[in-house]
Amino acid sequence: MSPEVGGVKSATGHVRMLIVAMQMSTDPAESPARRALDPVEVPLHPGVVTRMRTAIEAALDDGPALLPLPTHSSVRAALLDEFRPAEPLESDAAFVVPTSGSTGRPKGVLLSASAVRAAANATHERLGGPGRWLLTVPATHIAGLMVLVRSVVARTEPVAVDLTHGFDPDLFAAASVRLFASGTRHYTAVVPRQLATLLDHGGAAVDALTGYDAVLVGGGAAGDELLARARAAGAAVVSTYGMTETCGGCVYDGVALPGTQIEISDGRVRLAGPMLATGYRLRPDLSDAFADGWFTTADLGHIDEIGRLVVTGRVDDVAVSGGVNVPLAGVDAVVVAHPDVREALSIAVPDDEWGHRVVTAVVAADPTHPPALDSVRDHVRGQAPAAYAPKELVVVDALPALPGGKPDRRGLAAQLGYGPVVTTR
Question: Which of 19, 100, 313, 360 has CA atoms 20 to 30 A from the CA of 56?
């Protein structure tokens, strides 16, 4: 049936066009097809730029949605099992970015193309304009992914540090030289531990660090002492706050990026704006986190006397160590599988370099043969991301428990002399 088009003259002599649209078909076969979800294995070597550029461009331009996956085979398999790429994708999702929950079960954050574009443009607006970016963290995480997204949106060519054998200050310096060869503005993003490593290394690494127009520092709380040390060396560091659900950092040095809104509700930080995720992959049960267009974070905080956001801790049992979410219950589960461990309980202790460091207390399976830290760390790294490996191991006779029998992380922190820790029951 064709639409009817007619003109009706108004009292002023103008003609108003009346369009009666033809009835839309309700046949599901004629409905717009949803995007496919494309799992892409993300390498740690500089070839990540070429591999990811095409996938990001497609995701931003109505092509397949992007699911970045690590090269670690067991982790990759678990994510594929959880996110099931063959099942229909939620509407408006262009990226499904893995992040960890407090129980250790991964969540796939659904980000639209408009959200990541808005986040990229807001960053460049705050920093003084588009520039070339150096990638220093895995692009499976939102911080690394957004470095590449900003480059695609700004049509600039990024450079990636080779992370195959971990973060190396000399490789950072060499990659920076290549980046500085062209472009008028240069940016990078690091986690606190990387910043501390560069400052400790000195020489060419610090020279490179001070050559950037801005060095974003996020993925965990950066201590005031570390930031002051970097600024004293001449680095233009910017402390960022955000999470996968907000396309990464959306608050810089305590001030919201353009378009971002902040409120404190019952002591918890809530965020809103065009950069917000729409939910979680195949998890409609978690939709309340995005109620009324606001994302309720797991962070405690307040607005200080000059209007800046101050984050004071977390309300869940997740550490953010070296830019990676580390569910403490997940650490417990892996550590307790060590043959020399009978029970395990972990806490997150604030750390200027790592954001948090994971400290694990264990009850030995055989008190005459307690587990060693190196043995436990090797065991954990063989079954989970490296960030899950405890930085400290304490052997105890018994773990503290609540009256109901649940493990008492706060009691453990007090027992070990750490005082208040960022955790909840």
Answer: 100
Q: In what helix (H) or strand (E) does residue 390 lie, and over which residues does it extend? A: none
Task: Please name the residues in contact with 55: beta carbons below 8 A apart, sequence gap of 6 or more.
Answer: 38, 40, 64, 66
**For the residues of 154-182, what is the DSSP string, one character each?**
HT---EE---BTB--HHHHHHHHHHHHTS
Domain boundary among 314, 345, 373: 314
pLDDT tens digit sequence for 61-92: 999 999 999 988 888 999 999 999 999 999 99
Residue 276: both structure tokens together:
């917000």
The boundaries of the domain holding residue 378 are 318-416
Same domain for 84 and 214?
Answer: yes
**177-191 pLDDT tens trace:** 999 999 889 999 998
Q: Quote the DSSP letter at residue 387.
A: G
Calpha distance 326→22 (Å, rounded): 54
- Element (DSSP H or E) covering residue 123: helix 113-127
Determine contact, residues 158/151, Cβ cutoff 8 Å: yes
CB atoms within 10 A of CB 404: 6
Domain end point (choices 254, 288, 314)? 314
Model pTM above 0.85 = no
